[in-house]
Amino acid sequence: MSTTFQLDTSTSRATPTPKPRKRLTVPRIRDHKKDGVTKEPLVMLTAYTARQAQLLDAHCDMLLVGDSLGQVIYGLDSTLPVTPEMMIAHGAAVVRGSYHSVVVVDMPFGSYEASKEQAFDTAARIMAETGCAAVKLEGGVAMAETIDFLTNRGIPVMAHVGLTPQAVNVLGGYAARGRSQQEHEKIIGDGQAVQEAGAFAVVIEGVVEPIAVALTKELEIPTIGIGASAQCDGQVLVTEDMLGMFERVPRFVKRYEDIAGMIDKTVEKYAEEVRARTFPTKDQTYQPKD
Ligand code: KIV
User: Is the shortest distance between the CB of 226 and ligand 1 below 6 Å?
Assistant: First the structure.
């Protein structure tokens, strides 16, 4: 499903040209898995800003405006204080910065659990104010009625089961789930319930591998793994984690780069040059006769 175009971002910070080809759609993502088989796994990463979306878009099938922005962007302890307003501001930026990927925006804690009507109001607002194609919500069996209500009213839903960070206080932490038989069965049941309710895909986070493998085999909808299994129908990571913006990351993250180290070295050099008055030079200053 991956792309064939190159973004040319040279003309303007806000408007890369040329405008690449048409955006992928939710039905295309859903139908990427045919008769229970996915040939090429789906690629998904989180994005929170327009520029980040521009850089990721050509390589991804889906961009997730995750409520992980609470920790990553706002320095919060958990995703719990994240608000719909935060999700909408970042969601709209990511839609503006992308042309190709399906943009999915997380429904934040407290904005959808009370009733299916509350969920509809929040999801409709997120979709109308961001232009995203779908929302994501956490929960399995408990959210099935809500997923059914939303999908029957024009709102595509990506579900999220296993380790669900919004339930950190019930789960007692961020440890991998599904080590007991009871938990194993619960997560399998959650996956089945969200498919039955109409979710077009399901994120499976932080579970022991056999659960992710079993759900991927059993479900007709694509499973998107994070700390799950390479056998899932797709993978998602928090972009800042895989780029190496943070020293401490969960075990399931591969740090492909050391961006934090690069920023540290670059800013150290800038500070040295400012203090030595070797920046700015003539090249970066305006003269009357230029
Ligand atoms: O909020 C988020 O970034 C997520 C992913 C980690 C799946 O839900």
Answer: yes
